[in-house]
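Design job #97: recover the sequence.
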């Protein structure tokens, strides 16, 4: 069986499994055992595009949702949940209040401009509140997030150096440490290679790697247009239109990779800039890539945030409201083997059936950890 056949078979199995769980109510019972029910549903998206297939030729597919698919998701959520703002969700969690009816909150990460053009009009038409977590140093610029730049460069690298050995030798020649160059080359895919660097290197070292790759490979500027960030004017309009603005750090740094001072600069500096430019208190923070540890959670608390959002069920028992779980969705997260929207799979995601624990990333249980100086 070829790769395509294997993918379709897995899709059929997943869709069938989800259908059985939904029909029997087992997905809801699983949800009752997890934070999915206790904290209700908080969903997260990244980019929203007109056409998924076209955008996926240049971008990380799992960060894309078409406007049409987003509308299917929102309609499904709207029929089963009362959609509320993060401010209402946070206030009720803070007070320990329960919910008379199921509630959901909708969020978008990174602050891509296409959220303004594609998602914002849809949300306004449906009368739904939402939140956008932005990378403040990117707002109002033409810069591209580091992970998107790195993915683009690795796609060019894999096209130029087709063998694993050629790519590993080339990456070493550009200054990457030998073991990291070998691991990136062996991944066989630009997304996996990007994640090797993005999740391993401190940001300063990643900048050096990107500069070396750019110097050798160049950047196709036309391909980067879709990654441009929001302007401050767009952000202010969205805020006036009922969108909560939250922080996603200054530069989209992975906080556990950095030292204490850098972490505080990223978390506190982002909040201060948003409050200065938008004139409203910023209470909500989303961890880049969902990654956190005891020291970074403490930094988020020190920086004045009251609510923090992750990408899995793992919690910090000392700061539960700074580690609220979210369910990240994208174009193909809730489709069957034929590519059609699947209410059963969506229900399983909403109930936490397909969500991993990710506990290996979050060194918090039972130990606050020492801040990295």
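Job complete. Output follows.
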């Amino acid at each position: 069986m070829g790769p395509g056949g294997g993918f379709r078979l897995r899709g059929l199995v997943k869709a069938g499994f989800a259908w059985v769980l939904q029909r029997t109510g087992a997905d809801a019972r699983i949800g009752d055992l997890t934070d999915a029910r206790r904290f209700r549903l908080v969903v997260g998206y990244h980019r929203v595009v007109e056409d998924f297939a076209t955008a996926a030729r240049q971008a990380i597919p799992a960060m894309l949702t078409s406007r049409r698919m987003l509308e299917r998701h929102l309609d499904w959520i709207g029929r089963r949940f009362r959609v509320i703002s993060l401010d209402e969700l946070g206030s009720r969690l803070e007070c320990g209040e329960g919910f008379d009816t199921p509630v959901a909150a909708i969020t978008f990460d990174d602050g891509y401009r296409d959220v303004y053009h594609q998602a914002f009009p849809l949300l306004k038409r449906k009368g739904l509140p939402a939140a956008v977590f932005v990378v403040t140093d990117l707002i109002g610029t033409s810069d591209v997030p580091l992970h998107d730049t790195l993915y683009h460069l690795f796609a060019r690298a894999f096209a130029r150096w087709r063998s694993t050995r050629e790519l590993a030798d080339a990456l070493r020649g550009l200054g990457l440490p030998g073991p990291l160059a070998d691991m990136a080359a062996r991944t066989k895919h630009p997304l996996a290679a990007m994640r090797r660097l993005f999740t391993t290197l401190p940001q300063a070292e990643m900048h050096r790697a990107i500069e070396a790759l750019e110097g050798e490979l160049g950047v196709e500027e036309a391909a980067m247009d879709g990654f441009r960030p929001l302007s401050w004017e767009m952000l202010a309009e969205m805020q006036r239109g009922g969108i909560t603005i939250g922080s996603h750090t200054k530069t989209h740094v992975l906080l556990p990779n950095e030292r204490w001072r850098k972490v505080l600069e990223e978390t506190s500096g982002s909040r201060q800039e948003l409050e200065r430019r938008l004139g409203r208190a910023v209470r909500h923070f989303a961890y880049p890539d969902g990654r956190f540890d005891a020291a970074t959670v403490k930094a988020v608390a020190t920086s004045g945030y009251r609510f923090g959002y992750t990408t899995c069920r793992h919690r910090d028992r000392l700061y539960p409201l700074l580690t609220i779980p979210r369910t990240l969705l994208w174009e193909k997260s809730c489709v069957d083997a034929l590519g059609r929207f699947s209410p059963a799979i969506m229900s399983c995601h909403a109930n936490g059936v397909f969500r991993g624990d990710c506990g290996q990333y979050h060194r918090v249980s039972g130990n606050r950890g020492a801040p990295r100086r």
